[in-house]
Amino acid sequence: MEGEIRNFITVWISSFALLSYCFVMGKIIPKGFSRLLAILPVIYLFLVLPLNLNSILLGTPSTFFLVWLANFKLLLFAFGKGPLSSNNNPPPSLLSFFAIACFPIKIKQKTTKNGNKSHVVNYALEFLLLAAFVPVYLNKENVHSNIMFFLYCFYLYIIMEIMFSVVRDLVWSLIGLELEPQFNKPFLSTSLQDFWGRRWNLMVSDILRQTVYNPVLSISRSQIGTKWAPIPAIFSTFVVSGLMHELLFCYFGRELPRWYLTWFFVLHGVCMVVELVVKDALKGKWPQGLPWFLSAPLAVAFVAVTGSWLFIPELLRCQFDVRARQELALFMEFVKQNIRTSSAGT
């Protein structure tokens, strides 16, 4: 564990140095292909650096932050777009540049004390829900596989909520920047468009919108007209999302992809296109659509069923749950040993 922690520190010190270089390049090189050529080596190194991390607890967030978020934001930055652009008012400082590049971040005023109390309550509820899952997980051999798949979907959501909340509050406490909330009650989604566009993994949705959806939409408008332009834009966005998930899981499991994740997102892209076409066709005949108490369970059930069919098996293939539990035990033992050593030294 000590070696992994050392690698983790090295990866993030290197990342800060590389982003400092990008920060300087943004000051002296105008936006466009010249700036892109200057930062392409950094994008490549961000693909390589997470390979030094083998753990789930340290490697998973580092891979997501560097390989996906930072690289996509740097691509936007090369052309003077996105949250790193100096066109923002005020332009980011070096520390802000680093934080915005690596994390799903949004600059806000510091939260109030009531906001901090709500964070504590949220943490308590999330950990209680996580603790409630443990007895079921330990007896998973006696639970039907379909039920376990649904529980894994819930477990994944809670783990991601906790991970991003911890990072959000850490960044806020260090430099006064608050992270964009990653989730907005996805269990209340009334459609696939609502789930993916407004409730699930919001920063990734925003980055994909800027890097994939908007450019494809602009090209499609000139080729097939305004009415049908969103269709290839939506489909392209889901394809890129699927490919990025395949890449991340290659880092996690160090295995070649089986393309289940890509098919999961392709399926959702096709279904969202169908959903939008049907809504448009029924706009005049049925403007109110399905009532919430019908549309919400249908949307969430569709995501859960397709996720348990195509997404969760890939998570289990890299033994995400087993490795995370083992690493947590090793980390706790590492902390205990260091406490004993410190106590003996004093």
Short key terms for the protein model shown above:
two-stranded antiparallel ribbon, about 350 residues, mainly alpha, 3 domains
Polypeptide structure, described:
By secondary structure, this protein is mainly alpha-helical. The protein has 3 domains: 107 residues; 66 residues; 160 residues, no CATH class. The protein is built from 12 helices and 2 strands; from the N terminus they run H-H-H-H-E-H-H-E-H-H-H-H-H-H. It has a two-stranded antiparallel ribbon with strand order 1-2. Helix 5 packs antiparallel against helix 6, helix 8 packs antiparallel against helix 9 and helix 9 runs antiparallel to helix 10. The protein is globular and about 75 Å long. Its main location: membrane. It is found in: Membrane. It comes from Dipteronia sinensis.
**Biggest sheet, in brief?**
2 strands, antiparallel
- Outline, from the CA principal axes? globular
Average pLDDT metric = 85
- SSE order, one letter for each helix or strand: HHHHEHHEHHHHHH
Give the terminus-to-terminus CA distance: 24 Å
Alpha-carbon Rg, integer: 22 Å
Strand order of the largest sheet: 1-2
Number of domains: 3
**What is the helix tally?**
12
Q: Per DSSP, what share of the residues sits in E-state strands of 2 or more residues? A: under 5%
